[in-house]
Amino acid sequence: xxxxxxxxxxxxxxxxxAYARAGTPDSGSPRFxxxxxxxxxxxxxxxxxxxxxxxxxxxxxxxxxxxxxxASQDYLIPTTLNITNETPLRVIYPHPVSFTPxxxxxxxxxxxGRIEIIAKLPTSSGPAPRPFGTLTVQACTDRICLxxxxxxxxxx
Length: 156
Description:
Layout: H1 5-18, E1 39-47, E2 53-60, E3 65-67, E4 80-83, E5 90-92, E6 97-99, E7 108-111, E8 114-120, E9 133-137, E10 139-140, E11 149-152
Antiparallel strand pairs: 1-2, 2-8, 3-7, 3-10, 4-9, 5-8, 6-7, 9-11
């Protein structure tokens, strides 16, 4: 019997709920892990002679991966760089690695470890503007996917 993408999404959500941590000591309210707990923007740099390339360095915790862009399946959330104050001419995502999680028998494309995402920005006559925006990620292990997160681009 084939499992549909919707059934896998529901299974991943239920697994993420089971993976929840206890409440925080100060509030006593439950705190569920999300992708921001395991994926971090290590920095951003403008490169090129005119600063028209933005390099976003991302670090993914060991035992976790994030989905490639484009995502391998419709039910997976792709890693996406969103810049709100510029319109990138092109975003270059790293080459993914193939990975077969336990929740499917088909390999998916993912990013692991430390990666760089490059945005080609329009050239400007002044200094490169500080980028505003987010990096949308969904962190997963070989068994579960956590709720996605929008990581804010840090100030330069």
